[in-house]
Structure formats: C-alpha cells, structure tokens
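Protein modeling request. Please complete all fields; requests missing the sequence field cannot be processed.
Requester role: graduate student
Desired output: 3D structure, token encoding
Chains: 1
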Amino acid sequence: MTEAILQQVLGQIRVLDQYLRQVQRAVQERLVPPQHTQKRRAFYRALRTSGLVRRIKTRPASDIVPRRLVQVQGPPVSQTIIEERFFS
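Delivered output (88 residues):
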C-alpha cells in the first residue's frame, strides 16, 4: 500500500515538474523585452525557412536559474583541468 502511494506521488511530481517548466518559460518570456523576443523569433524563423535547422529546441530550465559562484583554494579550476588533460 505504501509503495503504491509513493509511486502515485512520484508520478504527480513528474507532471507538476513539466507544468513548472512551462510556467517558468512563460514568465521568462514576459521578463524579456518585447523587441528582443521579436528579433529572436524572426531569427529562428529565418533559420527554419532557409533550411539550416528543422527545429529550435527550448532552453532547459536549469539554464534559466542563476548559479552561485563557488570559491576554491589554489590555482584556477580551468588551469587544473588543462594540466590534467595535457600533462597526465
């Protein structure tokens, strides 16, 4: 019984997550100045009509959320990555 309830709740969370993404996308569209939105739509329309692309994917919601910077000790992370890739 408990497992069935858990599965039901998880299913509802997935549905709510989809709605949340739609709402978040709609809010972001309203926050962007109308001129910018019109230019972007015209650009995408031109890409589609020229045949360069077939479909324009929407940005994932994770791209919209601002990320917090993390302070690290030592050399910059980019330098560490380069050194590990080329000198290992």
